[in-house]
Task: structure prediction
Amino acid sequence: MTDRITTITDVSEIPPEPPPRGAGLWLKENLFATPASGALSVIFGVIVIYFTSGAMNFVFDEGRRWDAITTNARLLMIQAYPEEQIVRVWLAVGIVAALLGLTLALWRTGGKVSPLRVGRTLIGIGATIAAAFFLGWLNVKILFSIDPGGGSISATQMGTAFGVGAVIIAIGWGITRLKNPKDDRISVMGLLGLAMVGVAVALPNLYVPVPGPSVEQDGIQRLTIEFTRLENSTVIPWVVIMAVGAIAYLIGKVMADNLAARAYEITRNIVIGLWVAAFPVIVLVILRDPALDYERIRAWYLPVGIAFGIVGYLLLGQLTTPHTNESSRVVSGLLLVTGILLFFVPADRTGLVLAVMLGILAVYALSTRGWVGGEMGRYVAAVVFALFVVGIFVFESTSDYSEYLVRWLVFSLALFALASPTFGGEGAARRRYLGLWVAWVIILVYLMVITSTVSTVEVSGSFFIGGLSLTIILSVVSLAASFPLGVLLALGRTSSMPIFRVLSTGYIEIVRGVPLITLLLIGFLLLPVALPPNVTLSGVLRAILVMTLFSAAYLAENVRGGLQSIPRGQNEAAMALGMSTVQMTVFITLPQALRAVIPAIVGQVIAVFKDTSLVVIVGLFDLLRIARNVIPNQSVPFNFQNATKETLIAAAIIYWIFTFSFSRYSQRLEKKLGVGER
Amino acid sequence: MVASDARDMIVCDDVKKWFGDFQVLKGITTTIKETEVVIVIGPSGSGKSTFIRCINRLEAHQEGSIIVDDIELTNDLRNIEKIRSEVGMVFQQFNLFPHLTVIDNITLAPLWVRKNPKAEAEETARELLERVGIPEQADKYPGQLSGGQQQRVAIARALAMKPKVMLFDEPTSALDPEMIKEVLDVMQELAASGMTMIVVTHEMGFARAVADRVLFFDYGQIVEEGTPEHFFTDPSHDRTKLFLSQIL
Result:
């Protein structure tokens, strides 16, 4: 057996060789590995050629009315927003650009790429441009009859494309030839900045198709398309906005690189707060320009806000101490019932109602301190409260919107009081909670003031803005509102209490069983009947309400899936530690559940964004309606009838840009939250 | 060791529990005194886990009474919350909160249930991490720790609420042999410091070393109880003898 063992006497390391490479090898391994995959590659290649050729010929066809889009770009974005107030729109876009710049910098977006990758990408782009134009010129028709030069792309155009493509390929190739091409050292954000500079330079020199004068040709009026430069009124604001974004990014970068950890954390939170505040401020204040009535503000809103702020502060200060568990529950319950019932009391009775409520609270407070005979005090309080409840139903509801401020404040105070044993505490926790109350009062008063005044922007139609802006407003508001509702429904459906379970399940199953169009129509026609007689909701609010209710049902099911994926041991551990059900849900169950269902939620967000196109049913002018109905119906001053194909393609591209950004962001979010890793 | 004048910490009187038609506890009567360490052993399905889960109301008993630290365990939420804040529990599957760091796991309940100030809660948490031997893991996530370390964090988390009683439901059953020792050492130190403990376990060596009393459960009843000397060397019941002969 010894002769079976071979001894290797001289083992010096064999120098490593580079792996086999080459385009031919790549093709062989990836596209033509087996005869079947080879056949598929060929078929697919043919399909690509056919489609590219057809698409290029479509785009450059003489009869295309791309000028319909360029002339109506403003219409698509903001619909009939008055020309003289357009500054507001630019201001809004500028604010978003600044915030975006700050966010990208503070969250350290964009890493580094290697010159090899940049170069290869450029080569790819150049080659694609050249190939596309070549295929377009080739004009591959169905059944493979080829008609070179017979389509919409002339030889000159193809030549120019080849030239441009060659230049780009050369640049790309040059970059790959730099020293150490594989080191990741080109900053992505730097490239983006370079691109923006390029755009800023190109914009004033860009030629876009616009309708020209119609000429007589062969006895028929023919429409012509001219190419002109973009107007300064478009170019300058865009350049300014890009500059603002870039400057904001640089400021953010400086902060990100130089701030200490704590200050960095605080700055990030401030930016998040700014984003949250930016939306209502932009929509309600900047774009809508409410006509503020300063007298009314001084006389009513401010005093009420301050009074509630102080009363709430004292009351919550009392309720957040750790030892008032039972009395806080009773007081909160009383407040909640009062808050709900107040919605049915007319304005002039509000003061009376509030006085009674305070009286009851005082009696109860005194009774717990033994000044008014303990039990007796509670009975008195209960009797007075019962009388008060009965008395309320004798009265009618109010119509003055500003009176609702008091109702909302009482309601909010009730919710805060209910949550105080769970979220209050000593020291810092308490200060935070009381601070939250004061901040909420300020926000509520601000929103009430802004929304209860008329806008000075005069637009015919039901809302002061339309187009893409309306789509965005509808989506953001309904998604933001449907989120808490959806979570509550999910918790209700999995609750151990039968009534919550039945109500939640009923709601979810009914709403999910009806198409959105039906719900919109129901909402539009039936809501005015269902609400109290003097309350009117504008078309947009009704659409938002319906979309919120719709989206909440689907969101609830997604969240429920997440809730059910959490092992029972988590809840048991939380309960064993003495946490209440609310605390357990907020700190343990929901964070884990929501993390698990991010893909489903993002899918929901994308769906809702596109479903907003259905509000055409209720008379609103969103992006799709303008693209499909408004522009192709124009005949004066330019005739864009039959431009539907072009406008629909434009609308599709705009939708795609947004939804693709959502899904890319969700991938990033999943990575950051460690979804899918244990 | 239990002082002779130690007060009754947990009094169970004829506790019965059913899961549907199946009776899992058939009248458990026992008293656990302060600082006593009681080890509960028995075959699976004998109701020992159910018994200790009844003590902090993770399961509800249908008949009989359980009185913890002079508070009766009923459906009254206030009693349940009070008892839960005095009774800490350590689970077989650790049940740490994976989305929070170790230190956040430990301070979560003291912050929000006891409303302790943040600095105090963090200081207590770090002291407890020292006590269980892993102070350097404070800022890691549970997923980054080994099983033994996770269980020790779970013990620290339960101790952070300063409980009067600690319940252990097979704390080392999910660990591999190398890590069992580290957890048992912590539990031994805890017992020596005077904590009232009820431990459901299969670690007989630990039972022998630390127990003041051993309970043997079978088919929902306490078949035998006694001191470890009596129990492991000269058990009275045949069933006990059979069980011990199979595992020792």
Summary: Chain B touches chain A through 32 residues (CB under 8 Å). The mean pLDDT of chain B is 90. The first strand of chain B starts at residue 8 and ends at 19.
